[in-house]
Specification:
about 60% helix; alpha+beta; 4 strands; about 170 residues; Tetrahydropterin Synthase, Chain A
């Protein structure tokens, strides 16, 4: 007695639903393995980078003799209204370079953030939109720089940059 070919095939390979189940299970296990291997690789790579990065920066700083400079952006975006009869909105983001290694000066800058923001708001609120446009960014930066440095005792700011500077009428 001979068994038909399809019956033998189904006995060996299973029904179409069982084959689909095996294929999907294989794909799922493959994806899990790829995710696990990628996660382990990523953790090892980034933890090694964090461990060796400070040593590399220190050796580079010692070799060149320069200090670690950065940009102080703690003031964030400042919004103020001008002194016009119909006030215009002024939006400005002020940043400036400073030495990150000077901890005392860094702490002083952080402690004066509310005062710096208030100085900027008071300055822009005392000006008209036409006056601000006429004086230009450089004159505004010079005035704010002067006012900021009057507050500081442990160092001084050398230059100001505006990431954003908009006058919306």
């Amino acid at each position: 007695m001979s068994i038909p070919f399809i019956a033998v095939y189904n006995r060996i390979m299973g029904t179409p639903l069982e084959r689909l189940y095996r294929v999907l299970l294989g794909l799922l296990l493959t994806l899990i393995a790829i995710l696990a291997i990628g996660s382990v690789y990523g953790l090892m790579k980034f933890s090694a980078r964090k461990q060796f990065a400070p040593a590399a920066q220190t050796s580079q700083g010692d070799a060149t003799g320069t200090s670690e400079a950065g940009y102080f952006s703690g003031l964030g975006r400042i919004r103020a209204q001008t002194a016009d009869s119909k006030p215009a909105a002024v939006v400005v983001s002020i940043v400036f370079p400073y030495n990150k290694e000077d901890r005392a000066f860094t702490e002083e800058l952080s402690a004066h953030i509310p005062q710096f923001r208030q100085i900027a708001v008071n300055y822009f609120s005392s000006q008209t939109a036409a006056g601000l446009k006429k004086s230009g960014e450089e004159a505004i930066k010079a005035e704010l720089l002067s006012r900021f440095n009057k507050m500081l005792r442990l160092g001084s700011i050398t230059t100001l940059y505006f990431n954003d500077y908009l006058i919306v009428e």
